[in-house]
């Protein structure tokens, strides 16, 4: 997905520091007069509110939920400024980046990842905290 909101959200990886170790941008700049959107952590529930036991299915559902909640505010993934990721087990990065690339394409937002002991409910294995500007 191309960044169609270059005037609102711009992403950069300065050449004076090492390249990102993953698929994210070191710098995300928000233009003046943009509105900030902060979303509650998104988890891997399906359309019926059920949380699947499979970690990768939770990843897939979480990304879909992010796209849907953005759309509810007339935003797209190009509006995302930063995502904080919390996971209770090692992430299957091949699967994660496959879904991530489908959502964010070549201009991914800034990202922070942390592994934690547990999340809000025992069945939640991954949660993504989304910040956007539009």
Automatic annotation (TrEMBL):
One Pfam family named in its UniProt record: Ribonuc_L-PSP
Signal sequence annotation: none
PANTHER family given in the database record: BLR7761 PROTEIN, YJGH FAMILY PROTEIN
Name this polypeptide is given: Enamine deaminase RidA
Species of provenance: Paenibacillus azoreducens
Lineage of producing organism: Bacteria, Bacillati, Bacillota, Bacilli, Bacillales
